[in-house]
């Protein structure tokens, strides 16, 4: 079997197959400059890979999961919501404050940002809540879709704050 056929069979790239051949992960010989792969060895490697894969956990937005990650349930006049008040931690925003409440240092994803940028990030989102009636997560925001970040080392990046936040919430739920 050649590398292309082996890659299709194993659902990996041809480069991965060539790497496996070089490292001896699968039995293969080189003939005329091309790898010839032993099919039984490849089948064994595929089986090993399937055993190592963790079971995919279903992430469900429910009242229970949202409150388990720190949300506060609110019910009134037929409205049932779970509000996420400390949403910045799910977006990877870390803030240190002075006793006065002013920001003393800030980072996003472990990289330092200016305090004023952190304040603008925090001001960009008004509310994050899960609506129990339709099972959806909502963000009331202004300008959090494409937010320009300037790191303290001078680099710039554009992030979608809402997307980053929702991803962090999914990760927190999956970790339950």
Protein model, in words:
The chain is an alpha+beta fold. The chain contains six helices and eleven strands. The strands form four sheets. The chain has a four-stranded antiparallel beta sheet. Strands 5-6-7 form a three-stranded antiparallel beta sheet. A two-stranded antiparallel sheet has the order 1-2. The relative contact order is 0.11.
Task: Give the arrangement of secondary structure elements.
Blueprint: H1 3-10, H2 14-23, E1 28-31, E2 34-37, H3 39-52, H4 63-68, E3 72-76, E4 79-83, E5 93-97, E6 103-108, E7 111-113, H5 115-124, E8 125-131, E9 136-141, E10 147-150, E11 156-159, H6 161-174
Antiparallel strand pairs: 1-2, 3-4, 4-8, 5-6, 6-7, 8-9, 10-11
Helix pairs in contact: 1-2
């Amino acid at each position: 079997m050649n590398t292309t056929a082996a890659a299709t069979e194993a659902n990996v790239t041809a480069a991965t197959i060539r790497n496996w051949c070089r490292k001896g992960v699968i039995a293969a010989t080189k003939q005329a400059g091309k790898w010839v792969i032993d099919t039984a060895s490849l089948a064994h490697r595929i089986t090993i890979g399937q055993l190592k894969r963790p079971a995919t956990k279903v992430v469900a937005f429910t009242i229970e999961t949202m409150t388990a990650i720190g949300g506060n349930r609110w019910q009134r006049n037929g409205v049932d919501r779970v509000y996420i008040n400390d949403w910045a931690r799910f977006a990877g925003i870390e803030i240190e404050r002075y006793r006065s409440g002013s920001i003393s240092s800030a980072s996003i994803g472990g990289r330092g940002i200016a305090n004023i940028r952190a304040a603008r990030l925090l001001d960009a989102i008004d509310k994050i809540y899960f609506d129990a009636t339709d099972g959806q997560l909502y963000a009331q925001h202004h300008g959090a879709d494409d937010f320009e970040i300037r790191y303290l080392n001078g680099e710039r990046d554009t992030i979608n704050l809402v997307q980053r936040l929702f991803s962090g919430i999914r990760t927190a739920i999956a970790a339950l």
